[in-house]
Amino acid sequence: LFAEGLGPLVMTSANLAGQPLTYRDADAFDGLADTADAFLSHDREIFRPVDDSVVFTFRDEVVPIRRARGYAPRPLQLAGFESGPLAAMRERRILAVGGELKATVCLLHRGQANLSEHVGDLTHPDTYRHYLRAIERLEELCGFEPDLVACDLHPQYLSTAYARGLGVPLVTVQHHHAHIASVMAEWGEFGPLVGLSCDGMGLGPDNAVWGCEVLLCECGTYERLGHHEYFPLVGGDRAAIETWRPAGALLRAAGEQWADALSKRGCPGRQSRTASVSDRPDSRPTEDELRVFEKQAAGNVNAPPTSSLGRVFDAAAFLLGLCGRNRHEAEGAMALESAAGDQPQLVEPLDYRARERDGGVELSLVPTVAALVRESERGAPVGLLAARFHESAARMLADAAQLAAKRRGIKTVGLSGGCCANRRLLTRLVDLLESRGLRVLYHRRIPPGDGGLALGQALIAAWQA
Fold it and tell me: Which of these ranges, 126-130, 192-196, 217-221, 425-429, has the smallest mean pLDDT?
């Protein structure tokens, strides 16, 4: 083809955005007829579709964000199952079904953890069917059916519903505990350690939406030592898409003139490249939306409390005019990290809180968001403010971990959750913790986000069964 004059090609997976891979010719001809100009087929059938892997570099490690082709289903050998504290669980056959976004599954037997490839968002019907096939293929590969199943605490996750329908003894695992357990599994660490688990959302046992947690983890158990100050997730799931919502909630919590601040900020809407989602011409809230927002926040209507660090990043992205709407997961956070890219690694932080209170640790970026607005009004450059926001978040987390570690006499800190895919945040956080004499565990072989949940769930089930 190239010899005949074909120009450069950009290769991507044969699927529409949000849908699983198309790997059969007939499905491609039918489903992609309106998208592709031509089809180049092959007489060798694809037996097992595996998506592209996505990685980033950190220090000397190549860390997967999406663990798929080239990595899965390569097994991990976990410590403690030969002659250690998990030896009694060596012969148990454990299936962990993961979360709902970035879904993966894990089979654990004789200390060998076999993780599936990245499957994706289970709310899409085709992806859910692919998820079921991935479980079948993994069970066939490993040659066993599970006698114990682990799932997320959230009762409405499709993976949880699937696990409950198997009729096998079940262990439910809190989302952020599973994140920390996954990095402990990688390092063969049994604890005790202080875990910093930071992401978009995960259900807590108090029915709040957790997302920035300081946990004490040891041998399959956890204790919540602290968390980011709760703020209302006004609009529920819409607050994960419309970035003005967490911005308004945080400014309102800070006692600022939040409605005025929102109406002056934001960014013009952009037409999505996908057919299913389209931004309106302006991502700023209307007056009617602001009135409804205030009523919901004041009356606690469809406004569950959250400690999500991911939503705080969304708020900062909105207030700096970087992202008015998350068209895909973490778009605002990625825009914020990109905006800070040309800035020095060491910058002055904005105001934040991290202090001991009532025997635990209280931490908050509410003052940071308020300071972000003030500095923006003074004309500070967007890139510098994005960098200062990252510095504030890193110092808040480092201070919180140090306080918790000192109080419990612990020298090890584990980092996990989707926010640890942010290299600027991760770099500063690890540097700060190590400079204070703490040993830091971070992901090297398993994604820090929800793609690593299944491994953590499997290890916790082995401990608790």
Answer: 126-130
